[in-house]
């Protein structure tokens, strides 16, 4: 789902003309709440501590890189939100800043997802037993239910579909 939204954001960034405010607001909402608050915070609060318990250091190495990239991504999102807010006063400058930061975010997150797939999840398989992974997945679901509330996934899946349709 995250990758579909990234593709939609890429298409939004390529569109000429005035900034379409509503789709960008939805994209930022998705990124802040689904990609960051749901996905990244589960890693930071649950997965990384589990890896630490198995001797994988939080500082430096793959976990440190992931944490650094989470912060870098948040910086891009703040910059995109600021550019979107400035669209009424400085449309051309806001568009340039929005597109520049969106492209930086897209590059970062795509590389980040590749690192998760090729390094982080391989480490999880190597260091956490099957029952520990199962427990971690249960904790992820509990976190999502408790912190995000019911209907969270459905809401953000619908936003992803809307962005796909709009950017189509």
Provide an overview of this structure.
The chain has a single domain (2-167), classed as nmb1532 protein domain like (Four Helix Bundle (Hemerythrin (Met), subunit A)). It has six helices and no strands. The chain has helices at residues 2-14, 21-53, 61-85, 91-127, 130-148, 152-167. The mean pLDDT is 95.
Task: Kindly list the characteristics that best describe this protein.
0% strand, mainly alpha, Four Helix Bundle (Hemerythrin (Met), subunit A), 6 helices, 168 residues
Count of domain modules: 1
Number of helices: 6
- In CATH, the architecture is Up-down Bundle
Rounded to the nearest angstrom, the distance between the terminal CA atoms is 15 Å
CATH superfamily: nmb1532 protein domain like
- Percentage of residues in strands: under 5%
Main beta sheet, described?
none
Mean pLDDT equals 95
The chain-level structural class is: mainly alpha
CATH class: Mainly Alpha
Shape: elongated
Roughly how much helix do the residues carry, as a percent range? over 70%
Order of helices and strands: HHHHHH
In the CATH scheme, what's the topology name?
Four Helix Bundle (Hemerythrin (Met), subunit A)
Number of strands: 0
| Uncertain residue ranges | none
């Amino acid at each position: 789902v995250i990758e579909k939204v990234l593709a939609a954001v890429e298409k939004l960034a390529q569109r000429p003309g005035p900034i379409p405010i509503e789709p960008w607001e939805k994209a930022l909402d998705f990124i802040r709440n689904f990609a960051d608050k749901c996905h990244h915070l589960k890693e930071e609060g649950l997965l990384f501590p589990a890896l630490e318990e198995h001797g994988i250091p939080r500082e430096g190495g793959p976990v440190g890189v992931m944490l650094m990239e989470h912060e870098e991504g948040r910086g891009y999102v703040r910059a995109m939100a600021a550019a979107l807010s400035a669209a009424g006063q400085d449309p051309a400058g806001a568009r340039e800043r929005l597109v520049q930061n969106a492209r930086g975010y897209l590059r970062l997150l795509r590389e980040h997802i590749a690192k998760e797939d090729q390094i982080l999840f391989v480490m999880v398989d190597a260091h956490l037993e099957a029952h520990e992974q199962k427990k971690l997945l249960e904790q992820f679901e509990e976190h999502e239910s408790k912190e995000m509330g019911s209907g969270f996934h459905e809401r953000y899946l619908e936003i992803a579909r809307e962005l796909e349709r709009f950017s189509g």
